[in-house]
Amino acid sequence: MLTTIIALITLAQLSLQASTAYDPFYSAGVVEFRSSNSLTAEARLQDNLKGYLSILESEDAKNLDVIVFPESTLNNNEAATFVPNPAKGLIIPCDVNTGEYHDLLVQLSCAARKLASYVVINLTEKELCSTVPEDTRPCASSGLNLYNTNVVFNRNGAVLSRYRKVHLYGENKNTTFVPETGWFDTDFGVRFGHFICFDILFYAPAESMVKYNGITDFIFPSMWFSQLPFLTAVQVHQAWSYANNVNLLAAGSSNPLVGSTGTGVYNGRRGIITAKMNQGLGERKLYKAQVPKYRHLTKRSLPLSPINQKKLALPNITLKRDYLQSYETVPLNLTAGNSVTQEMCFSNSSFCCKFEIQWQPLLIEKESKYYQYRLGVYDGLRNEVAAETNQLKNCALFSCIGEDIMDCGKTMATDIDVVFENITITATFPKAEQFLIMPNSLTADMMPVPVNHFKWQETDKKNTVKMRYELNTTTPNVMAFSIYGNYYDSIVDIKPDDEDDNKGEGGDDAAVKIMKIFIFLLSVLLLSLISTVKTDDSYYTAGVVEFKPQVGGMNSSQLIDEHLKAYLNILNSDEAIDTDIIVFPEGTLNNAFNLTYVPSVKDNIVPCTTNPQQQYADFLVQISCAARRLRKYVVINLTEKENCPSTPEDLRPCASNKLNIFNTNVVFDREGRVVSRYRKVHVYVENKNTTLKPEYATFVTDFGVRFGHFICFDILFYTPAQELVDRFNVTDFIFTSLFYSELPFLTAVQLQHGWAWGNNVNLLAAGASYPEWGMTGSGIYAGEFGDLVSVMVSEVGERKLYKARVPKKGSKYQPQNTNPPIKTPHNVTKLRLLKDPQIEDYNSVILDISSEEKYIKRYLCDGDVCCTFEVNAKIVNDSLEESLRFRVGIYDGRRTYEKEEWSDIKVCALYACANSELSSCGEPVVTNNVLFKSISIKGKFPKGNKLLIMPSILDDQLYPLNRSDIMWSSRKPYQVYEVDLKLLREHTNIMTFGVYGQYYEKSAAVSTSAATHILIITFLLLNLLGFMNS
User: Fold this and answer.
1) Is residue 313 assigned to a domain?
2) pLDDT value for 878
């Protein structure tokens, strides 16, 4: 009896002890932690530390081998701490009383020792820049680097491992000079690797520790911002753990209202042991699991904990949305039968997917709400605003709340379940040095499909791997089901499995190489001849590039490579051969993560041949070389850095890195020399510097034309744009832009056309092409001759060179394409358009247009401006109820912008409204059924020393009308400008027809207001979500 009692006591004691190296399991805890929202930094730190210690001192924490806390829920930059370097010896902060380490590190070291567990925390670390003398990057004025760091304490409270995050996600932190890999061994026989949040999407350090270090257990602190439909937190955890067949301990920050939540423990191909996606205010909770050790998996299996996840409450969690409009998709018609087989390929790619889908018949009633679905395929760079990205190959089914692609990747409350009986996806993926293919799934409870509900098959071949992913369990309301291929190293295409990888030297390959070299040399010779011999000196040939930037999907280095490659392809293209000058748009080359110095014009530097101390970035050097090789002028826009202060008289404060950052135009001549540099004066909600004094940039070419140039928002102000016309008598201009179009008067091509015509100057305008964000608009304009070529893109951006022969001022050359070619119709509602926020303040009257042709005359005044409108129009084809309404309006007042700047404008115009309500004016429309037989606007505008009065004309495709259809005149008798604008030919596609006066003398900075700040913050939140911490 006594022996039995002793044995039971012994077993009880063993059950309370930590795991040993011989046990088949270890006990782990992961913490979902809501960070403090106290008002002061010190109060937040103390509250967070108290929460950490409370968890470590709780009953739940006892007898755990390892406890993991999430990312960025402890301290911040102000409370950064030094952290011991484990490579120099194991230090126990709990025993160190020198004050070197912050109290938070000391207390947590003591808590780990008291608990006798391994404890992993994430914090903001500081380190003296001088600690790494080989790191010659600029140091902050404080002399410190700040890192996002994991710290691992062993059971004695010693710092056993330290890892600094490699892939920052819009964080104001440093990265190490050489990327780190974090791992440590335990006394229970498990080696852990650890990394942080955004790292999981990249090869190093996360995937490399699986592939090359053979690690099978990982720790993952995160502050993850979930994105539908493929990158919600637990969904990513399971996919990564399953594809690599490794254990993953993931601890998540808990703030669902901003989209941050997701914690769990995962056992590779055996799936979730425990996991949680929170809603509402989040929580501070420890989740525990017994985790099988991989060497014991064949000996013993572990029953998985059931998932008890509540259905998603829509208002209580914020979810980002992927850029699904980049996918090739087809809708799944749920009401036409109950099965479909579909094969799809991504355009201009060899990557294809096959889908076989079965679902239960839907019993749909009127007004029923249920998810709709699309099948999609994608082969390209993952779109992520201003963040590092990878190449993706993805075959997917995903849900939508409506019929449009923009309705996909969103959630809603449903009253009918869409129940899938089977989903099978097959595809062939190319092999690569660095890639991972994952089963990616999500259901309406924001959890992945359980691993025992699907089959995952991989058939390995020489150059490819064939994947088959099958949902084999009846499942309602699937949000995503996809084969998600992450290609970490480069863009990879499918190579046939019978293709020879080891071609010998010589033979046909050698001959081809020799021929290519010969053709290249010959083309250089011909280009030189073409570029230096002119057959007609009355014009020059110009090219402007409408260029789609890669937004997300790659890291900053890959982004530069992608943009540079595309720039060089355009410069080397056949279309570019006969151009004298090519202009690229604003903001489509580099970013704040890849800055470059730019030589001063007075230094007479050719970056291609002179690059002292490698201060000019490679992309600047290569474009200089291309301009030199191709013998043409090239204008680019980039993000420039310059040491601060640049001049002794500039007493404005410098940033901590002692750099000024500028939005800069750079002009190369035919030798690749920097012959002009201009830094933007009117920055538009940009985190950039401006020069102490505004710059005026001009340069003279060897074809006898002097150009001035400016950037985007500058066009609305006197300095430098209008001043170059008035004071410097420049007649040819270059305009790089990333322009957000606004109805009804400031869409891109409309403004370019009006500015060139109003000044009677030539304008070469190159626009960034991202219509999803409202950015598009390029053209070449010849003053009173109108647009020679122009483009507005409405759905998918493009990378295309547009060119024209531009008449030199004073020559007798008549442009051959005075009437631009007919533009391809497009749906302007697909283009994100801003709306004039002051359009309702205009003094306006609605025109009474009916199916009977009618002459209407109106006389309106506002302030110092009066105009007479004469309109002859009628409604055609459609009924009065379905037709647009038109107003004639006049405005004399201040126009404010989404920045602390404004200008005085005076406008007389006819413009379209969707209906009779003032609020509908300036809305985009698809159809127009009003026929205008004639329009006449005559007005008297006050004179001024600094002004521009220009025609503002727009059709329903967002282009100006043909020059031959318009008469425009402006006279300056006495104290007024008399303007006369007439429509000479009947039209049914007019949206705006008016006179737009810019009065620059009163343009100024307005006082800062809360409303202005809200506009700026809203703009940044909408367009720079990629800079949120991950």
Assistant:
1) no
2) 63
Which of 292, 307, 331 is at the close of a domain? Answer: 292
Which residues, including other chains, have CB under 8 Å from residue 145's CB and lie 6 or more apart? 126, 127, 128, 129, 139, 174
User: Rounded to whole angstroms, how far apart are CA atoms 889 and 839?
Assistant: 9
- Return d(Cα 744, Cα 955) in angstroms, integer: 10
Helices (H), 204-283: 208-211, 233-244
Same domain, 239 and 372: no
If the chain, 1030 residues long, is cut into consecutive pieces of 10 residues, what is the mean pLDDT of each piece?
Answer: 39 51 93 91 94 97 97 94 93 88 96 97 96 88 95 97 93 90 94 96 93 92 95 97 97 93 97 94 95 62 39 64 90 92 90 96 83 94 67 95 91 91 96 93 95 95 94 94 87 51 40 45 44 61 95 80 94 94 96 92 92 89 94 97 87 89 96 96 87 94 95 94 93 96 94 96 96 92 93 90 92 61 61 90 93 93 94 79 84 80 91 91 80 95 90 92 89 78 92 94 45 34 33
Residues 146, 167, single domain; the answer is yes
Residue labelled with tokens 């531009």:
806
pLDDT score of 555: 80
- Residues 855, 823 within the same domain: no
The answer to whether residue 431 sits within a structural domain is: yes
Q: Of the candidates 809, 830, 851, which is a domain's last residue?
A: 830
On whether both 607 and 729 belong to a single domain, the answer is yes
Count of domains observed in the chain:
4
Other beta carbons within 10 Å of 500: 7
- Quick one: pLDDT at residue 498? 53
- 3-state SS of 60-84 is HHCCCCEEECCCCCCCCHHHCECCC
Classify 147 as helix, strand or coil: strand
Asked whether residue 812 falls in the same domain as residue 842, the answer is: no
The full DSSP string for 716-729 is GSIIIIIHHHHTT-
Q: Which range marks the domain in which residue 471 is found? A: 321-491
CATH number at 624 reads 3.60.110.10
Residue 974: its pLDDT value, please?
60
- Does 500 fall in a domain? no
Are 469 and 554 within one domain? no
659-668 and 674-679 strand pairing: antiparallel
Residue 724 lies in a domain: yes
DSSP E strands: which ranges in 320-409?
320-321, 328-332, 339-345, 352-359, 372-381, 391-400
Q: Which residues participate in catalysis according to the annotation?
A: 71, 165, 197
Is there a single domain that holds both residue 901 and residue 813?
no
Beta bridge partners of 276: 263
Q: How far is residue 770's CA from residue 799's CA, in Å, rounded to a whole number? A: 10
- Asked whether residue 665 falls in the same domain as residue 810, the answer is yes
Question: pTM of the predicted model, to two decimals?
Answer: 0.53
